[in-house]
Design brief:
Mean pLDDT is 85; it is low at 450-470. It is built from four helices and 49 strands. Strands 1, 28, 29, 30 and 31 form a five-stranded antiparallel sheet that branches. Strands 43, 44, 47, 48 and 49 form a five-stranded antiparallel sheet that branches. The longest helix is centred in the N-terminal third of the chain and has 4 residues, at 55-58. Helices cover 3% and strands 41% of the residues. It is mainly β.
Length: 567
């Protein structure tokens, strides 16, 4: 796995928080950055490897803010932005028209802060907000309860999280798997605190009971690095394995991990099914790949991560900005001694031959971003566990996409989603190498491609051979455009079960044709090719327009092709 430094147009000289999120719902991750000395930029992803800066036009080009938290706090479908700020924090409401409105005073969340995180601590379907206080002076942090009418209520005291300190950063994770998100608060020059959610609207300090030793200025992040279905903990100095029953074991010695000096995070960069660890050490990032046996290896040099030219890395959000299935890294530099920051750098993950599957969850009873949802995926004999909203780090956060590396498995055998509401969704036999959208309370899923963003082969190019069945090819249909019927030719390299799937432009399946088990050979003429009569699975004629089709043969998928219905 290699990371290539991209000569993109996101080399903004602003030091602070940064985050990947799809702010305009076009299917591509955008980028927002906070800090000094320049106005905060919002980069919209153009879908071609470049970004357009629209901060002023969108109304979010304020100056300052060390951290940034994003989420759809009012469940209206748009990702909102919260910037904890020394003096008065800012809340930008997404108007869902490419603009934002600053509503912190109206929403009653303009408390001075340093770090922030959205989570639904009481599982009422509305995202609440925790703000770590200004680290420059001892004070209490604030827990805001979402009232559901665009405003928040300060419930810090009654929730039991009013401890005085120099709040620096916060993170969330349901470490005991009881269905309620727990809360960690890191403090400047003081020990951090892990609050256990008591499921009654209150929290209790369990830091000393877990076997986790925290240092001043330290942050913890959560992730299941050993695939045992429990959230483990990485701090700056240690790795703790979750033993279950609310206990952790220090497994740092022999793990191959070094000591980080600041932020850390979990993510699967090589898509092998095991969470890797990205640390900051001084002026450098350090990437540890998970060996799958409880140990890690340093691949920083091999991955071509560069030492910061000036200052240090302050935030480094991770996300698949180019929708190729591999996680990329954006690095935001802190300015040395108050000087000029940056320039920031975008690293593209060049990937490997491993398969992948990304999920975007849409809550209905639960909060729309599904923060707190638990996803268990089994593929190729391996079961992985993710929890939406965990895994991020100080000054940034996870994307809302749930990213799984599948190794050489060509499909997910089973996916189980436990929503914060308690509802359970189960999917079976989901093909690899796609992003899907799963909506709470609805059966199945839809493919989350933007418009016609399938891996379609250009006209005139020979069909690409995919997967392990060498020589299996899906050809262009004829006639094309067609009315009322068309034939779809293909060839098979071996005896295999064959299914033809037809999608509309939004990625929804309109027709599934089970062709059965077929012997190796050519299926090219009208007597042998697959015939589509232009009807959906309900027997209704589809409307005119562009559609896509692909061939599933055994556990493999062909490249999709485009056809046109002309009526």
């Amino acid at each position: 796995m290699l990371l290539s430094r991209q000569a993109s147009n996101v080399r903004w000289k602003t030091d602070g928080g940064s985050v990947f999120a799809d702010f305009n719902n076009d299917g591509y991750l955008d980028l927002y950055i906070t800090g000094w000395p320049n106005p905060n930029p919002l980069y919209l992803n153009n879908g071609d490897g470049t970004f357009s800066e629209v901060g002023v036009k969108a109304g979010v080009a304020s100056i300052g803010g060390l951290d940034v938290a994003v989420a759809d706090y009012d469940n209206d479908g748009g990702i909102d932005i919260y910037i904890p700020h020394d003096g008065s924090s800012l809340l930008y409401h997404n108007n869902n028209d490419s603009t934002f409105s600053e509503v912190s005073a109206k929403a009653r969340v303009n408390f001075s802060g340093w770090g922030a995180v959205f989570f639904d601590y009481d599982n009422d379907g509305l995202l609440d907000l925790f703000v770590a206080n200004d680290a420059l002076a001892p004070d209490r942090s604030v827990l805001y309860h979402n009232e559901g009418n665009g405003t928040f209520k300060d419930v810090t005291k009654q929730a039991g999280v009013e401890r005085i300190g120099q709040g620096l950063m916060s993170s969330i994770g349901d470490y005991d798997d009881d269905g309620y998100m727990d809360l960690f608060l890191g403090n400047l020059n003081q020990l951090g605190v892990l609050y256990h959610n008591k499921r009654d609207g209150t929290f209790t300090d369990v830091t000393k009971d877990l076997g986790v030793v925290l240092q001043p200025n330290e942050k913890m992040v959560f992730g299941d690095y050993d695939n045992d279905d429990n959230l483990d903990i990485r701090t700056f100095t240690r790795l703790y394995r979750n033993e279950g029953r609310g206990k952790f074991a220090d497994v740092t010695n022999g793990s191959g991990l070094g000591t980080a000096t600041a932020v850390s995070m979990f993510a699967d960069f090589d898509n092998d099914g095991y969470l890797d660890i990205l640390d900051r050490l001084g002026t450098s990032l350090v990437l540890y790949l998970n060996n799958g046996d409880g140990t890690f290896r340093d691949v920083t040099e091999e991955a071509r991560l560069k030492r910061a030219p000036t200052g240090t890395f302050l935030s480094f959000p991770v996300g698949d900005y180019d929708n190729d299935g591999f996680l990329d890294i954006y690095t935001c530099y802190a300015s040395p001694g108050g000087g000029i920051a940056g320039p920031n750098v975008l690293y593209r993950n060049n990937g490997n031959n491993n398969h992948w599957l990304h999920l975007r969850l849409v809550g209905t009873k639960s909060n729309r971003n599904a923060i707190g949802a638990k996803v268990r995926l089994t593929a190729g004999g391996m079961t992985q566990f993710r929890e939406v909203g965990t895994g991020g780090h100080s000054y940034s956060q996870d994307t809302f996409d749930v990213e799984f590396g599948l190794g050489q498995a060509a499909r997910a055998d089973t996916i189980e989603i436990r929503w914060p509401s308690g509802e359970v969704s189960v999917l079976n036999g989901v093909p690899a190498n796609q992003k899907i959208i799963v909506t709470e309370g609805q059966a199945g899923y839809k493919v989350a491609w933007r418009g016609n963003n399938f891996p379609v082969e250009p006209r005139g190019k020979l069909a690409t051979t995919l997967g392990h069945v060498k020589g299996t090819v899906l050809y262009q249909n004829y006639p094309n455009p067609f009315n009322p019927e068309t034939w779809i030719p293909y060839q098979l390299a071996t005896d295999v079960d064959v299914t033809l799937v037809i999608y509309n432009l939004s990625g929804r399946i309109v027709r599934t044709m089970q062709l059965g088990r077929q012997p190796a050979g050519f299926y090219l003429n009208k007597e042998r090719a697959a015939r589509w009569d232009g009807r959906n699975d309900g027997g209704e004629k589809v409307s005119s327009g562009i559609y896509f089709y692909l061939l599933q043969y055994g556990d493999e998928l062909s490249t999709a092709r485009k056809l046109a219905v002309d009526k």
